[in-house]
Amino acid sequence: MTEPSHMVEGHGLHTDDPNPQRQFWYTADDLVYLGYQLEALEDLFGKTTPGPDGLVGWTVSTVWKVEEEVIAPAYELITSSFVDSEAAANAMFRAQSE
Known about the structure:
mainly alpha, 4 helices, disordered N terminus
């Protein structure tokens, strides 16, 4: 298990950034670019923390940990449990209606 404060391999979003630490941080804009909803970021990854050169966001290791331990298993469970995305959506609708 990766500790959130432990730096792991960086991402490739800002390869031209002169600060080598930039690759170890995601900002909200980075995660929205990757497809996350802005409103969900703190629920998924926790509060933002200060990073290098005034960046505010999450370490790559924090994001990867959540993706590996929460998002991927949930996705696997959903895709293996339903015949299609409509059936999964219907189950979510029923659960929220009760």
